[in-house]
Amino acid sequence: MYLILFGAPGAGKGTQAKIISQKYGFEHISTGDILRESVKKGTPLGKKAHEIMSSGQLVPDDIMIGIIKEKLSEPQLRDGFILDGFPRTVSQAEALDRLFGELQFGVGAILVFQVDEEELVNRLARRRACRECNNIFSNDVINNLTECPKCGAKYSFYQRPDDDESVIRRRLKIFIDTTLPVVNYYKDLKDLHRINGLRPIEEVTEQIFGIVEELKSRG
Ligand SMILES: [Zn+2]
Q1: Would you list the DSSP string of 70-119?
Q2: What is the set of active-site residues?
Q3: In the structure, what pLDDT confidence band is assigned to residue 163 with cuts at 50, 70 and 90?
Q4: 2-26+80-117+172-218, what's its fold?
Q5: Is the pLDDT of residue 53 over 80?
Q6: Whole-model pTM?
Q7: How does DSSP classify residue 132?
Q8: Ligand 1 center to residue 200 CA distance, Å?
Q9: Which distant-in-sequence residues (6+ apart) come within 8 Å of 151 by Cβ?
Q10: CA distance 168 to 176
């Protein structure tokens, strides 16, 4: 079984991926990680990818697909895996489909973590981080406090540059622009589920477990 995850910034994709892989023992495959891994191991494809990246170019699809194929051929992945960070384009999605056919992977689903833009901007704009312990708090909680409730540091709160409104809006726009064509491609081909990432974590988890259980019952 496989799950392919797409996630808007702030939609909790990473958190849920961790929970799913703990519960079901699915390996969480981030394409960034396996790319680095094959470069480090110095596999033929890893060497090629390294050369290309060193010259400042993006790793082309055929090499990336080759690296993913090496990874997905590992026997423990037959039980289930979560693919994260790929595909990013429709042609990558088509190549991945061919690969899944070749490797005879069974059932799977696409999970698209979405957020309401205004709600996300509101939520992140209220976040403050502690410079000392890096914990994140809502401004509603630490308002008027001079000391960090976790580590006791004084006047240590700040707003992370990532949480700035214009940064959030730009990242969301990039996500929507790049992901939408791929999501549209999958819509008619695969079991695609939209997940509202701003709901409480447990509710989101429950929805996803429901999807996985349903897939399992289909074999
Ligand atoms: Zn602190």
Answers
A1: HHHTSGGGGG-EEEES---SHHHHHHHHHHHHHHT---EEEEEEE--HHH
A2: 13, 88, 127, 160, 171
A3: confident
A4: Rossmann fold (3.40.50)
A5: yes
A6: 0.84
A7: T
A8: 24
A9: 130, 132, 133, 135
A10: 12
